[in-house]
Amino acid sequence: MEKKSSNWVAIESESDPDERYAKELEVAVKAVHVACLLCQKVQEDLIFNGDGGDVQAKDDNSPVTVADWSVQATVSWILSQAFGAQNVSIVAEEDIEALSKSNATTLLSSVVKTVNDSLSTASTFGIQPPPTPLETAQVLEAISRCNSTGGPTGRFWVLDPVDGTLGFVRGDQYAIALALVENGEVVLGVLGCPNYPMNKEWLNYQNGYRRILSRLSKSSSEGWDGKGCVLYAKRGSKKAWMQPLVNGDEGWVWPNSARPIKVSAIDNPVLATFCEPVEKANSSHSFTQGLAHSVGLRNQPLRVYSMVKYAAIARGDAEIFMKFARAGYKEKIWDHAAGVVIIQEAGGVVTDAGGRPLDFSKGVYLQGLDRGIIACAGSSLHEKIMRAVDASWNSSSL
Ligand SMILES: Nc1ncnc2c1ncn2[C@@H]1O[C@H](COP(=O)(O)O)[C@@H](OP(=O)(O)O)[C@H]1O
Ligand SMILES: [Mg+2]
Q: Transmembrane ranges (predicted)?
């Protein structure tokens, strides 16, 4: 049909599903690429050079590093530059309390340096770096600006700057997760997985990922043959995408070498692989072991840190992800938002154990979550797992 007036064109492009959130997606993917490179550098320094700064303990005893604060500052700064600080609302994991203590000056300067080093290379991805290095106050401001508490209306970003910090400090898997939520629904998800091995066999924690990592030479560890990828999806597009992580590639042009990804076609539990957290404290291994046995799962569980598990399902490298935390634990939205939409658009199913969608509209926590989280490559596997949970729940100690 002929486009007659400029008004007509404007209305059409606003309702065109391909155009919706186009800028948000591009900026978010670029920000996550920048964050991945930042994390790779800090992890390398921490693990292999021994100078990536301290690993601090938070109030709940979970670790936090220079990378967590630096990614939060960097992503917050990039989003604010792109959309205007007044238009950007972010729910994120870190705050500046620990950084503002009088004995934290070395840590703080290390964060400021890491942020500025990272932003100085952002032009690789077409992001304009700041004209002069950010001052300490600007870095603190970028971190503390991420103080949204989410909710049912409006638009906010959800950021886990380093998900799976325990994996990060152990030289293993971790993820950078950024999602956009609008009126309580996740509309965009971007997941950076800097250590995701292109050889999926290496994903398994029990294979000693760190030893393998140390054997990969720099040149063999990039691009499609090595490790590291960024996954993304837009709600309703029925497509999910993966890009290789590249280091300092000046030819990077959005949507640089993106490939579509799909969940696995396996629906027979005998052939399926399930993944779960490495830490027993985060999800009951004994409950999932019984469950796996009852549905005929034979493969060893793939125990992986962080939202890389969501990536594994979306890429078709595993078929089932289960998380059953101890009673009373409240799941946070930043640990799931990006992964859920990516799996769904790659063709998979994600619900709580009662079959209800995860609810991102109730603030920082996934309120009303029924027992645990089940993500599967297909609905038939998903049904089987839900039935098995019902059958064994009452006899479990969860
Ligand atoms: N007791 C607990 N039960 C369930 N999840 C927990 C937990 N303690 C921490 N977590 C969450 O589990 C995430 C790590 O996931 P996984 O166990 O799959 O690797 C942590 O993210 P962070 O590392 O970003 O803090 C944290 O939010
Ligand atoms: Mg997390």
A: none
163 is in an annotated binding site: yes
Secondary structure class of 94 (helix, strand, coil):
coil
- The answer to whether the CB of 210 falls within 8 A of the CB of 312 is no
How far, in Å, CA of 147 to CA of 168, rounded? 24
**Beta-carbon-side half-sphere exposure of residue 335 (alpha carbons within 13 Å):** 16
Cis check: omega of the bond before 255, within 30 degrees of 0: yes
Q: Which atom of ligand 1 is nearest the CA belonging to 326?
A: 3
Catalytic residues: 68, 165
Q: Which ligand is closest to the CA of 369, given by its number?
A: 1
Residues 6+ apart with CB under 8 A from 41: 114, 117, 118
CA 268 to mean position of chain CA atoms: 28
The structure tokens listed for 3 are: 């486009």
Q: 219 near 292, Cβ under 8 Å?
A: no
Q: Taking residues 38-58, what's their average pLDDT?
A: 85
Place of tokens 């799941």: 331
Give the integer Cα–Cα distance in Å for 248 and 115: 16
Indicate which residue's Cα is closest to atom 6 of ligand 1: 282
* 335 known ligand binder: yes
Cα torsion 75, 78, 81, 84: sign: negative
CB of 293 within 8 A of CB of 269? Answer: no
pTM of the full structure: 0.94
- Token pair recorded at residue 38: 């930042």
Q: Residue 11 pLDDT > 50, yes or no?
A: no
ipTM over 0.90: yes
- Nearest CA-CA partner of 234 in 373, 31, 79, 26: 26
3-state secondary structure (DSSP) of residue 233? strand
Q: List strands edge to edge, sheet with 259-261.
A: 90-92, 155-163, 175-182, 185-197, 227-234, 240-244, 259-261
Q: Which stretches within 90-147 are classed as H helix?
A: 105-120, 136-144
| Protein residues with CB under 6 Å of any ligand 1 atom | 62, 93, 160, 163-165, 277, 279, 281-282, 305-306, 325, 329, 332, 335
Q: Looking at residue 10, what is its pLDDT?
A: 38
